[in-house]
Write a structure and sequence with these properties.
Pfam family, one: FSH1
Keywords: Hydrolase
Strand content: 15-25%
InterPro entries: AB_hydrolase_fold, FSH-like_dom, LovG
CATH superfamily: Alpha/Beta hydrolase fold, catalytic domain
Structural class: alpha/beta
Number of domains: 1
Number of strands: 10
Protein name: Serine hydrolase domain-containing protein
Strand order of the largest sheet: 2-1-7-8-9-10
Distance between the termini: 33 Å
Helix content: 25-40%
Organism: Amanita thiersii Skay4041
Radius of gyration: 17 Å
Shape: globular
CATH architecture: 3-Layer(aba) Sandwich
Order of helices and strands: EHHEEHHEEEHEHEHEHEH
């Protein structure tokens, strides 16, 4: 890859938004410096209290539950749009229906037709969606609505970074990942992640032909130690290089879990 400025589309997780993820990745943005332009995109789906807390939000403690959802900065009733929790889709319990993914794909299509990106970086639900975009740009005809005047809106990406990612299903995504996709993809897994457990991440890894898998000792977060920041930036500069993996230790903004040992967020991903 050339040494020119690299433009990366960054996709936040469920119940976050672009401002929240940008804040959490501040150290990574500083590490990448002037070599990169990180473009943080907001998901179109605005989450309501019922999406975050279930049917009885009045019986829940909002700060605690939003922390469990990985978005302690947000408030379900906040009037500040910078803190509004968002999602790329909402799935049913069986993960067979992904409400809202069509709107998210059209939003990204319109962004891609206006400017060029070298790659995509996503966390959690955003990582799953990043892989969808990377795979779809290889065969955009699989979802005709993604085309612009019958043509792809953007060339295939040079890389994808999926942190705590997973393989979404449903009638739109299944064909996109069948049998696999070939965009170079870095899969980052937290060994103690209870929101997106390793088995679920492996489902995405299994359909990724050109992959690199690295693990950290932590949970559901983007590792932020200096060694990890350098590694992520170097990967995005040259995804084909044989970079040494960071040390096993990691730090970041972990996602607390509920009393039953599972995050509330897992229900909606």
């Amino acid at each position: 890859m050339s040494t020119a400025l690299r433009t990366v589309l960054v996709l936040h997780g469920f119940s976050q938004n672009a401002n929240i993820l940008s804040k959490r990745l501040g150290a990574l943005r500083k590490e990448c410096g002037s070599d990169f332009e990180l473009v943080f995109l907001d998901a179109p789906m605005i989450l309501q209290p019922v999406d975050l807390f279930g049917s009885s939000p009045q019986n829940q403690s909002q700060p605690t539950d939003l922390a469990a959802l990985g978005a302690a900065e947000a408030s379900a009733t906040s009037e500040d749009p910078a803190l509004t929790p968002r999602a790329w889709w909402k799935s049913n319990k069986e993960r067979t229906i992904y409400n809202g993914i069509e709107d998210s794909l059209l939003l990204v299509r319109d962004i891609l037709k206006e400017r060029r990106f070298d790659g995509v970086f996503g966390f959690s639900q955003g990582a799953a969606f990043a892989a969808v975009i990377a795979a779809l740009l290889e065969r955009p005809y699989l979802y005709p609505s993604f085309l612009v005047d019958g043509k792809t809106p953007h060339p295939p990406l040079k890389f994808c970074v999926a942190v705590s990612g997973f393989k979404p299903g449903g009638h739109i995504c299944e064909p996109i990942f069948t049998p696999s996709y070939s965009t170079p993809t870095l899969h980052v897994i937290g060994k103690t992640d209870v929101v997106v457990v390793e088995e679920r991440s492996r489902q995405l890894i299994n359909v990724s032909e050109n992959k690199r898998v690295v693990e950290h000792e932590g949970g559901h977060f983007v590792p932020s130690k200096a060694s990890w920041r350098k590694f992520l930036c170097e990967y995005m500069k040259n995804p084909e290089s044989d970079l040494p993996a960071p040390g096993s230790s990691a730090s970041g903004a972990a996602t607390p879990i509920g009393a039953d040992g599972e995050s509330l967020m897992a229900m909606k991903l």
